[in-house]
Every structure is written in C-alpha cells, then in structure tokens.
Amino acid sequence: MFRSKIRIHTCRIILLTSLVWLLVDVAILTLYSDCFGDGCNKKTTNQNTIIELEKLGGKKAAIAAGLQSDNAADDENVEENIIVEPDVGEEGLNLPPYPKSKLKRWAPVPSIKPQGELPGEMGKAVNIPIEQEKIMLDKFQENQFNLMASDMISFNRSLTDVRFEKCKDKPYPKLLPTTSVVIVFHNEAWSTLIRTIWSTINRSPRPLLKEIIIVDDASEKEHLGKKLEEYIKTLPVSTRLFRTENRSGLIRARLLGAKHVKGDVITFLDAHCECTEGWLEPLLARIVEDRTTVVCPIIDVISDTTFEYIQASDMTWGGFNWKLNFRWYRVPEREMARRGGDRTAPLRTPTMAGGLFAIDREYFYKIGSYDEGMDIWGGENLEMSFRVWQCGGRLEIVPCSHVGHVFRDKSPYSFPGGVQNVVLHNAARVAEVWMDEWGEFYYAMNPGALNVPVGDVSERKALRERLKCKSFRWYLENIYPESQMPLDYYYLGEIRNAETSNCVRVHQTQAVMCGSPCYERVTSRAANSGSCRWTSSGRPAEPASENHTSLPYR
Description:
By secondary structure, this protein is of the alpha/beta class. The chain has helices spanning 2-32, 133-143, 147-152, 165-168, 190-202, 226-232, 249-259, 280-289, 333-338, 361-366, 380-390, 419-434, 439-445, 458-466, 472-478, 546-549, and strands at residues 49-55, 58-64, 88-89, 92-93, 104-105, 175-176, 179-185, 209-216, 239-243, 265-269, 273-275, 293-302, 309-310, 316-320, 326-330, 347-348, 357-360, 394-406, 491-492, 495-497, 502-506, 513-517, 523-524, 532-534. Among the domains are: 95-118 and 121-406, Spore Coat Polysaccharide Biosynthesis Protein SpsA, Chain A, CATH 3.90.550; 491-549, no CATH class. It has a five-stranded mixed sheet with strand order 9-8-7-10-17, sandwiched between helices. Strands 11, 12, 13, 16 and 18 form a five-stranded mixed sheet that branches. Strands 1-2 form a two-stranded antiparallel ribbon. α12 (419-434) runs antiparallel to α13 (439-445). The chain is globular and about 125 Å long. The chain crosses the membrane at residues 12-32. This is polypeptide N-acetylgalactosaminyltransferase. Keywords: Disulfide bond, Glycoprotein, Glycosyltransferase, Golgi apparatus, Lectin, Manganese, Membrane, Metal-binding, Signal-anchor, Transferase, Transmembrane, Transmembrane helix.
C-alpha cells in the first residue's frame, strides 16, 4: 500500500510538471504565433528573417537580422509558374480580388541621406576633368554611356524627391501584394547593374519586395560571372540569378525570369535604372484595385554623359507612328478632362515604352505573356499594349511613381540576324495578329517587311480569339483616336499620272509637290482596287489593272 501511494504521488508530480510545461509552451507559441492579435496575416516587424539566395548552382541561406520582411522561403515548392486556361467574360478576363491572406502590411521607406560631397549625390551631374576625357571617351564605347562617371557614383546614391507634393501625402491601401522585380542584362556595366539592384532594395518597402530576379542573357564580361554570383549572396533581399545558354534577347530572357517569380506582381526593370522614393506603392495600389491593370512609372532621364537625374514630363503618353515605332506624344485635353485636371491621377496611355512596368503575375500569363515568336528586342511593347487594351485590360502611367533610366543614343549590342530584320520581323507579327486591315499601313510604310519571314502566328491569333479581344478599329476609336492612322480610307498608295507614269511626291524640305518615278506599291480597301491616277489634262484616268498595282500584303 505504501508503494502504491508513492506511485500515485509520483504520477501526480509528473502530470503537474507536464501541465506546467504545456502552459509555458502555449504562452510562447501564442506570443510568437502569426495567428495572434490582428490575425494570421500579421508578422512582427523586427523578427529575424532567413533570406534565401538561390542560384542555378544550388541554394544558399543567410540570416539577416532586423528586417521587416516576412518573405522567407515560404513557398519552396514554387519552381515554375504554370499557365492556366483563362476565365473570359464579356468584358475580358475575370480575375478575383487578392485574398487578404496574400496581402502585406507595409510602411514607407526612409529617405536616403546625401553622403557628403560624393560624386552624383542628389542626382547631380558628374563632370570628368578635361585631362581624362580621352579615357572617358574610350570607355564610353563599351556601353554607350559614360562608364567613368557611373563608376564614380555610389551604389546607394541619394536622389531628389521629384514627386508632386500631392503624391507625397496620397493615401494608399495598408495591404498590398508582393512583387518580384525581374532585371535582364547582357554585358551590363557593373556599376549600373548593382546601382539598379540597390536602388530597388533601398526604396522598396521590404514586406512588398518578395525577391529580385536577375537574368544574364549570355554575357561575356568577366565581372558578370563568379563575381556577381558571390556578390548577390551578400544582399539583404532574396536575389536569384539565372543565365541563358545562348543569346536569347530581352523577350525570351524576361520569360525565363518570369517563369520563376514567386511574388504576386511581376515588375520588369531595365539593368540601368534608379528607383526613387515612393516608386513602388503607387504601382501596386493600382493593381490591387484591378488586377487587369498594367502600370508604368514616369520614366525619368539619367543622362548618358553625366548621369544627372533629370525629371521627365508628366504631360506625355505613349503612342506610335505608321512604322510602328513607339513615340512620346503630348497628352490630349480629353484625357486631362477625364482625370478632372488632377495631374497625380493615373494616366490611361495607348501604349507603353515597355522597359519598366508592373503586371499581376497571373494576369501576365492568362493574357499571353510575351509573343515567343518575336526575336531579341523591339515591338514587344506595342504588342502587349494592343493586347491589354483590346482584350479588356487597362494600361496606365502612374505619375506618382518615378524611375530613372539611362537613355542611350544607340545600342552597344549586336542583334543576331541584324537590327533591321529583327525590328521588321517583330513589328510584322504585331500587324498580322492585332491590327486587322490597318496592318496594311505598316507594310506600305515598310515594304522591306514583305521580305522578312513573319513565322507562324496561328497560336497568337488563337489567343486573340480565345480571349474574345476587340478589333483594332475599336482600339482606334476608343483608346487612341489621336492616332495618325485614319479610321476610314479609300486608297493607300501612290497617285499616278497615266501619261508620264510619274507619281506625286512631296518635297520634304521645300513643302512642294512634284512628279517622280512611282514605287508601284498600292493597296485599296475599295471595291475596285487599283492606283489613283490622273492625266496631264487633270482628268482622272481609268483604274490601273490589278496586275499592275496590287501589293501582296500578308
């Protein structure tokens, strides 16, 4: 009996001790659990965060203390984004709002203070001494910008706040989606690439910056090899590097980067940019409101000669000419009226420049990502612009978001197949798929495109059909009525004198009309196709035969 009492007493002690430790465990778990206070979405802002650094050669991890990010390796299983069949309604793609559990709380990022009198601080110009000009000019040829000036500037240089005052106080949602920033480069200078990365890190709210993905498009520079791999291990944000085996071009390299994105929004940047204070929140705020909105910052100018940061105008938007070249044009009064005269309100732009923009990850794939039949670079921005508008989306420039970009007079890179052929090929694919009968203008202005293979566009045309996209006429009438392309025309081509066989020409410098040999390239949307001709007496001549005047448009 005595032993039985001892056993009972011992059991009570064990049970009591276990209960005490259980209560202690519960208290600790409650204190540090995500499901406490504001709910399962809340994270402590000062928790230590494991930052995952992934590269093709394997995975590395580093401990970073005091960061606000809760973007640790929480989705290890996400390796590639999968394209799913889109849900298309009468007005285009249907995307539900983000679940609240996917949105993150954020706080504005403190301004970067000037570092004394270092070169380029506050976005000031860097002037090279005259005795070093020859060295500067020699280095200029490497990247087609002043590499010497760039190398003198800090990776973390300060910039002036170029936003409107109203932008600084504009309220944004407290919960926003995360973004992955994708940067593609080919033989990029070290200083411009690293400054792009650091400006992204320094001026982005950490909870919103899921990761940075950099894609090396077959670079040959030594500093972009092992040195870069080692450097990104030291960064305080998850940074992954992918490399193409062969030169693929911007379009396919971006697709490679996008395939590995983990953030809810993909933000594409060029490799020679500088993000400014408050650049990210306005973009994400537009997307969280409508996931089919594609947004661009105002693209400020970083001088290619002095690296001075120059504020760009907020009164221009994207358009295009008959050759399908992207151009900046003045914002029309009708768009200013739609915005109620508020220059901080998002600007609906017909096209985008294409180098810098943000798009919902799921929407990016459902609407067709990029046209993989396009080569290297060029035309992909117009293709996506037409596709977004015609298929029910919206394209905006957000004036409260500013990102600087080094604009160069010419590209330092070679284009496999030649620049002209690549540009003509890409633009012809745009005309074939999205422009309907207005594609005739492109071929009329670029007859050389008739000799460039367009490739198979059946898949892209099927995409347009599947998404129930609107016509190009709808685009011209509703989105870009200011376009140079007429809505209705009878003839497109030459006015021929039937007696002399000369055609009307306008002298470009003297603004006078004269006659000269005809190109014999004419197209018509009228019932009786042919060239528009006149006789020396001024009377219209009979239409020329179809064999003589028709232009074999694709």
